[in-house]
Amino acid sequence: MTPAEFTIDIETWGDGPDAYDPDAVMELVDALVSRGAQGAVTSAGGLAGGVGAIFSVEGRHRDPAAASGAAVRDGVRMFLDACKELDLSHRGIARVDLLTDAYLEREIDQEPEGFLGVTEVAQELGVSRQRVSELRARPGFPAPIAELAAGPVWKASSLRRFLESWERKPGRPRRKVS
Q1: CB within 10 Å: which end of the chain, N or C, has fewer?
Q2: Domain spanning 3-109: which CATH class is it, in words?
């Protein structure tokens, strides 16, 4: 039986970060480590408003599915016992994510999404800012994800997809005669 490493990410329902003693949230790290968790990081607030933690545990079982199930059970038990010990109350678990080491490595290796304004889009496409405005009206040009006071904002990945399919013609575009 070879132990498999898993990372567990737990978040609970609560009333936001101000509802928790910051020292107790920090002590949660030691309480988890004393129960066998490795590399614990804790938080309060989050999307569900409660306390949360990310830590590694071993899943000891021959069958990978059973190992992952054991890791979830053990991790949740560690977390709930540690919260109880420190009197970190919450309204139940909102989310538990289990990641294998291989998946976590892939996730860490992902390039973060970039965002571009008109100037950056122009640089990326090798055109003027005015040409970006013209291209926006073209079918297939990605819609911005937001329109800010400073101008539109696009995801870099959307622009890369557009660039891959853009049939660019050299020279200036012809003006339409009315």
Answers
A1: C
A2: alpha beta
